Amino acid sequence: MMNFTHYQDENAHLDLAGLGSGPFNLSLAALLDSLPELKIRFFDKKPAFGWHPGLMLPGAHMQTSCLKDLVTAVQPTSRWSFLSFLVEKGRFYSFLATEKMVISRSEFVEYMSWVAENLESLQFDSEIREVSFEEGSFVLRSDKEKVKAHNLCLGTGKVPYIPDCARALVGQQCFHASELMSRQPDLRNRKVAIIGGGQTGAEVFLNCLREQWGKADQIQWISRRASFEPLDESPFTNEYFTPDYVSRFLSLPEEKKDTIVEYQKLASDGITPAYLLEIYRELYDRTYLSRSQVNWKLLPDRTLTAMSESSGGFYDLKLTHALSSEDEVLSADIVILCTGFQNILPHYLEPIQSRLNLDEHRRFKLSSCFAVDWDGPDNRRIYAVNAGLHSHGIAEPQLSLTAWRSASIINDLTRREIFSIRQPGSLIGW
After folding, report:
1. Which parts of 285-325 are beta strand (E)?
2. Do the domains 4-158+344-414 and 165-230+270-337 sit in the same CATH topology, yes or no?
3. What's the rounded mean pLDDT across residues 405-417?
4. CA 122 to CA 20: how far, in whole Å?
5. Where is 183: in which H helix or E strand?
6. Residues with Cβ within 8 Å of residue 293, at least 6 apart in sequence
7. CB proximity list for 45: less than 8 A, separation 6 or greater
8. Which H or E run contains 103?
9. Which CATH architecture has domain 4-158+344-414?
């Protein structure tokens, strides 16, 4: 762990303070490691690096190539690349023999943890409670210290999204999927309802079917989508996840962007085709070969509109069926909400919230280099990562452009081209 004595000087300022050390800020820290002249520190309330540990389900895989790691796209010779990780861990040749480019989520987390453990700029067990702006500097306060910084990068992540009708019922038997592996619920002889038709819903359904948490009496998988739809990972769709497309998207009128992002949803929020095939084969075998006693239901095209708890201790779920336009009611002992995540303004920004120029939906207005529009000096920047789906497009919350985003921020921070981020034009004339 780094000795922070140097930074305790009341007059010393960090060039950049990062809040949070998830994958996006970790990428920024990894690339900044090649610029030792800059004083940087990244604060995180967790005791060590972690990336959605509650979602680390058996069989979970990434949806992007391992070359889309923290650094490779802009600094392939970096000490912190995935290939460097393989070499240091002594598994390079074995990895090549697997002939895979998309790796398990657990191996990617192991890679990121390796980076986090070896970077000296990360400070864990340090929750920033408040960020103010005083005498031309940002002042960060935790329970342990006060730190001054010229610039910030906000990367504390999103929070689980809970449907309005379920909020009052969240508890031991109704919870968000992000808590699943830490809860390890007992599903034996229970009726389970899984809400959400994306990748997480698919992973939870298959693991429930395979009795990861005991043999359930019934498993009901509910999705608003017309079917259990695949991730579109075709070559031309993948062009959405390039700097060239993001640049084109940035230039579009604001009123068009939300519509385009919704249209492109399955480019980032579908289920991996190979995983869908695995689920279908499992259901086929259980239906025609093994005669499994587990009762399962696939319920697409249904929206959860109401939810209540009965006196018998189970939940009644009201669903609206889009095809029939009729309401349906089903019951469940346990409800697992695979409903994704949402952006909210971090509470620590409250002292400067009035100086943030937000849009009508209370979202950050971001420049092309991810700088937040705010009422402050031009040479004092607030950057935000994983907060620009509405401004930068479908690639923003994904890992695909992580290194490019970090490089864009560093170039803007230093006011010079540290990293080359100008890519040749796309094969498509956007």
Report:
1. 295-299, 302-309, 315-321
2. yes
3. 97
4. 9
5. helix 180-183
6. none
7. 124, 125, 126, 127, 128
8. none
9. 3-Layer(bba) Sandwich (3.50)
How many other CB atoms sit within 10 Å of the CB of residue 138?
A: 23
Q: What pLDDT score was predicted for residue 291?
A: 73
Give the whole-angstrom CA distance, residue 42 versus residue 154: 10
Task: Read off the pTM.
Answer: 0.94
Residue 167, number of CB atoms within 10 A of its CB: 10
Contact 42/124 with Cβ under 8 angstroms? no
Residue whose entry in the numeric block shows the structure tokens 């509405």: 390
CB of 318 within 8 A of CB of 362?
A: no
Residue of 28, 416, 336 lying closest to 163 (CA atoms): 336
Q: How far is CA 392 from CA 18, 19, 206, 248, 263, in A?
A: 21, 21, 33, 9, 15
Dihedral (CA of 152, 404, 254, 322) sign: negative
Q: What is the CATH number of domain 165-230+270-337?
A: 3.50.50.60
7 confidence band (pLDDT: 50, 70, 90): very low
Locus of tokens 């985003």: 405
- Domain spans of the chain, in order of start: 4-158+344-414, 165-230+270-337
Please name the residue that has the structure tokens 């359930």: 216
For residue 418, the 8-state DSSP code is: S
Dihedral-angle region of residue 414 (phi above 0 means left; psi in -120 to 50 means alpha; beta otherwise): alpha
pLDDT of residue 358: 96
Residue position matching structure tokens 């949806």: 63
Per residue in 283-324, pLDDT (tens digit) is 999 999 987 777 999 999 999 999 999 888 899 999 999 999
Walk across the sheet containing 382-384 and list its strands: 122-123, 40-43, 16-19, 152-154, 382-384
- Structure-token match 């864009």, residue found: 408
Are the C-beta atoms of 201 and 208 separated by less than 8 Å? no
